[in-house]
Amino acid sequence: MNAFSGIRRTSATLMATLLVVVLCMAGFAGPVAAAAAGKADTGKPSPAQTDFQRLEGRWVRPDGGYVLELRNVKKDGSLTAAYYNPRPIRVFRAEAGRKNGTITLFVELRDVNYPGSTYTLQYDPATDRLKGKYFQAVEKQTFDIDFVRAK
Predict the structure, then answer these.
(1) 98-108 pLDDT per residue, tens
(2) pLDDT tens digits, 110-137
(3) Distance (Å, whole) CA 117 – CA 139
(4) Cα torsion at 62, 67, 73, 77 (round to 10°)?
(5) 3-class DSSP state for residue 60?
(6) 95, 84 in Cβ contact below 8 A?
(7) For a disulfide at 96, which of 33, 40, 77, 122, Cβ 3.0-4.6 Å?
(8) Helices 29-36 and 3-25, interaxial angle, to 10°?
C-alpha cells in the first residue's frame, strides 16, 4: 500500500459525505437518510399526504343539492374548491386541516347573497361524509349540515 491509496480513500469518503450533504440540502434527506441507514424507502406517502386527499371529489348536500367540488388537495392543506347552487358561487378561501386527529375543512364563500358565508366541516371516514356547520351570513344563522360523496 502506498501513500496515494490512503489519499484516494480519504478523497472518496470526503466526496461521498459532500454528496450526502448536497442531497440533503436539495430536499432528498428522507431517502438519503434511509439509504445511509440501510433501510429501503417503501415509496408509501405519509398519512398527512393521503388523509387530506380523501377530500377530493364532488360532495352533495342532500337537503338542497348544493355541490362542493374539491380538487388538487395538497399535503399542506391547500386545495381548489368550487361551489354550486346550482350556478357557481365564488369560493374566497378553502383549506384542509387537522384538529384532534380529525380531518377538517373550512370554506368561505364571497359572492352575491353569500357575503362571507362559511362551511366548517369534519371528514367522517366511517360514513365517508363531510359533517359540520354552515353559517349563512345574510341571515346570520348557523345550520347543522352534511355532504355525501357524489357517485
Answers:
(1) 999 999 999 99
(2) 999 999 999 999 999 999 999 999 999 9
(3) 10
(4) -70
(5) strand
(6) no
(7) 77
(8) 140
Q: What is the mean pLDDT of the chain?
A: 79
Neighbouring CB atoms inside 10 A of 84's CB total 14
d(CA 80, CA 65): 20
Instruction: Supply the pTM of this predicted model.
Output: 0.68
Those residues whose C-beta lies under 8 Å from the C-beta of residue 109, and which sit 6 or more positions away, are 83, 89, 90, 91, 92, 116, 117, 118
CA 24 to CA 67: how far, in whole Å? 43
* pLDDT at 27 exceeding the cut of 60: no
Say which CATH number the domain at 57 has. Answer: 2.40.128.30
Instruction: Give the range of the structural domain holding residue 20, as residue numbers without chain letter.
Output: 3-36
DSSP letter, residue 101: T
Q: Strands, DSSP E only, in 47-101?
A: 57-60, 67-71, 80-84, 88-89, 91-99
Asked whether residue 25 falls in the same domain as residue 55, the answer is no
The H-assigned helical ranges of 26-125 are 29-36, 47-53
Q: What is the SS3 assignment for 112?
A: coil
